[in-house]
């Protein structure tokens, strides 16, 4: 069974640009979570989508947004990039509401903002 | 507020030594999940174990063992006879038990412990 996939693996952008990151969950999983892992800040929760709706978001500005598609894949959009947005962005999936509530993570997208 | 503390930032051991990674958590919830994940240099978080708050039994899986003590709010992870391949950053995480419509859903992570196992 395929795991969580993310694309692209690496990105280099300049300050002020916009970026879109993509995530495909494990087959059968309906929830997708996004986390940011910036140097020195640890893993921080960004967004949670389930059944196409945003269920919760972390303490991030509105320029971080996303959506979930009918096939449960998800996009994370970051507008007006700032240097401190440089980080590893991790996506996780789970089947919310079932007993299988472990979040399984993808390989991440490394974003560098210059 | 929920919080996870991993006081050990870095640990270095020699192969075949046993090593224990500490995790202390804070939560007001009476039902919750605790997790350990491993993050090798490649970056992907690898799930190791999940424990719910009702189950205080210790668990052993090969060279890995976990000690959950609710009385001290700790969920420690021991690697026996460590190997070079165990070198990674290990994260402890906390989540409230998922009740549809009421859960925050996200994981609260500790800062991680970087384990270096030298040959």
What does this structure look like?
The complex is a heterodimer of chains A (114) and B (119). Helices cover 0% and strands 53% of the residues of chain A. Chain A contains no helices and eleven strands. In chain A, strands 2, 4, 5, 6, 9, 10 and 11 form a seven-stranded mixed beta sheet that branches. In chain A, strands 1-3-8-7 form a four-stranded antiparallel beta sheet, with no helix packed on it. Chain B is mainly beta. In chain B, the strands form three sheets. In chain B, strands 2, 5, 6, 10, 11 and 12 form a six-stranded mixed beta sheet that branches. The interface between A and B is medium-sized, with 26 and 23 residues.
Q: Key terms for this structure?
A:
heterodimer, A: 114 residues, mainly beta, 7-stranded mixed sheet, 4-stranded antiparallel sheet, 11 strands, 0% helix, globular, B: 119 residues, 6-stranded mixed sheet, 51% strand
Report the β-strand fraction of chain A as a percent range.
over 45%
Biggest interface and which pair forms it?
Answer: A-B, 26 and 23 residues
Question: Average pLDDT value of chain A?
Answer: 92
Ends of chain B: how far apart?
Answer: 41 Å
